[in-house]
Amino acid sequence: MLTDEELRKFFHAVDVLEPTARSPLRHLIMPEVFRLLYGCGFRVREVLKLRVRDVDLNQGIITVRQGKFRKDRLVPPALSLVNRLHKYANHFASRPLDAIFFPGPSGGPFALRTVYTLFRELLLQCGIPHAGRGKGPRIHDYRHLFALHTLRRWYRDGEDLDAKLPLLATCLGHQHLSGTQRYLHLTAELFPEITARVDVAFGEVIPRRIER
Length: 212
Description:
mainly alpha, 2 domains, three-stranded antiparallel sheet, 3 strands
């Protein structure tokens, strides 16, 4: 899991990417791809498959079509992210509604391997250690960070977590509230005060780490 300082370093690095002959638009695209992963808790495939018609910047709504469990869902990004996407979209002329929103060099979606490789390269550039394949930091951990940081923000803002947790599960695309626990397993260690409040309403939705 990336710390707040590591996140700052990472996003600075992705913001100063240079275009390449093989990927002439990556300096425009990748900063927004990674911000959607962190800012909305999307899966990588969900972001890469977005089409122009799925990103309604006037309403501030992104439609994820046929996500996991073959379910569609509506996700409202933060206003700051919507504004960034407006600026990104302005770099393009009028595009067909079925065009890929973040086009790869061929016009289709970027390959997953391309994004994963860039992620590892940026970690190395930032001096963020990687523990090896499957051990992280992983690009999928942005979903964990989205969940954890959303709970942290709600708690600090005095929000009703009892009412908010189902919204978090919906944004993550979970069929049931209990499914959210996979993405909140660190909350018990990092934010014990949040865990206590959630347990009152939902029981032990957030699992405790088992000592071995």
